[in-house]
Amino acid sequence: xxxxxxxxxxxxxxxxxxxxxxxxxxxxxxxxxxxxxxxxxxxxxxxxxxxxxxxxxxxxxxxxxxxxxxxxxxx
Length: 75
Prior knowledge:
Distance between the termini: 26 Å
Number of strands: 4
Strand content: 25-35%
Shape: elongated
Number of helices: 2
């Protein structure tokens, strides 16, 4: 049985991703691998996504936030 057809958004949400300097955000001795600011067009507040020894996570919402797959390279 073939997979169902993909559903496309008629009005896709705009996503802005900004790469931040991990040392400026976390300090000179940080071990953070990357920090991103993700802003979805429908939300007033931006998300801050971190990648460090704990994995990938949104600063406010944790690893299951929709901003995490927006910046992950394998997503």
